[in-house]
Design a protein that fits this description.
Low-confidence stretches: none
Distance between the termini: 47 Å
Number of helices: 10
Order of helices and strands: HEEEHEEEEHEHHHEHEHEEHH
Mean pLDDT: 94
Helix content: 25-40%
Structural class: alpha/beta
Shape: globular
Strand content: 25-35%
Strand order of the largest sheet: 8-9-10-3-11-12
């Protein structure tokens, strides 16, 4: 089916931002999870997504890095249309053609993602977990991957846990290994899907500290979290989602202290 080409204003926005999302829709069978989401993320910024369960936050992250296909709309990362290409037609319309699996994998390799669960390989040490993707996917020599893995584990405070297996690490330590593993692919964008929700309260701080360090280093991040202190302190943009749409967005302190809508006021009352 032919459709209208992307609006030039949206294309200009896609070229000037790290992430540009326009009119994004996602269905799971009859369930309309994302209902026309528009969002931009500036380079080097931290965008924090908040909202009740089922609002579409995690699905939005998974659409950005193509773990989920989209049903309508567009997603650009660094000005590159994700998962598809527009082919101009003689009548001025365009057709969307899906990229090959290889091309999609190359796009996805530029995006790191950290999940609620750590998903570490239980039979591999912390260092081996961090080395695995660079060696297998990017064909980095093992010696170089090991050197980089040690550097990253030291960066997240686990230089003394290189040879420990996941079962020998606390939840917070495992999540820090997962962050190091994502960084080992040298991503240009990091997505965090409630990275502290599976942790005991006393372990949350050590993971947030690593994320604060990444923010200070200029890593572009999109973070789904219920940690409002992190959102206020580290976030450059706060986005409140409910029922698959963006209800409010703006400066974190401004929205947290002066929510405009009743939905956000009720949500903040339930989590603060």
């Amino acid at each position: 089916m032919s459709i209208a080409p992307t609006d030039p204003e949206i294309l200009a926005r896609a070229e000037s931002t790290k992430v540009c999302i326009a009119g994004l829709h996602k269905f799971f069978d009859e369930l309309h999870v994302l209902r026309g989401v528009d969002l931009t993320v500036d380079p080097g910024s931290v965008t924090v997504l908040i909202g009740p369960s089922g609002s579409g936050k995690s699905t939005l992250l998974r659409c950005i890095n193509e773990l989920e296909s989209i049903d309508a709309g567009r997603v650009w990362v660094d000005g590159e249309l994700m998962g598809m290409r527009e082919v101009p037609q003689p009548d001025g319309t365009v057709r969307l053609h899906a990229l090959s699996d290889k091309a999609r994998a190359a796009q996805r390799a530029k995006i790191g993602m950290v999940f609620q669960r750590f998903n570490l390989f239980p039979h591999m040490t912390a260092l081996e977990n961090v080395m695995e993707a660079p060696v297998q996917v990017k064909k980095v020599p093992k010696a170089k991957a090991r050197e980089r893995g040690v550097e990253l584990l030291e960066r997240v405070g686990l230089g003394d846990r290189l040879d420990h297996y996941p079962s020998q690490l606390s939840g917070g330590q495992q999540q820090r290994v997962a962050i190091a593993r994502a960084l080992a692919m040298d991503p240009e964008l990091m997505l965090f899907d409630e990275p502290t929700s599976a942790l005991d309260p006393e372990l949350v701080g050590e993971v947030l500290a690593v994320m604060r360090d990444l923010a200070r280093d200029g890593m572009t991040m999109v973070v789904v979290t219920h940690e409002m202190g992190f959102a206020r302190e580290v976030g450059d943009q706060l986005v409140f989602m409910a029922d698959g749409i963006v209800c409010e967005s703006g400066d974190p302190a401004q929205l947290l202290d002066h929510p405009r809508g009743e939905r956000l006021r009720a949500f903040l009352a339930s989590v603060l």
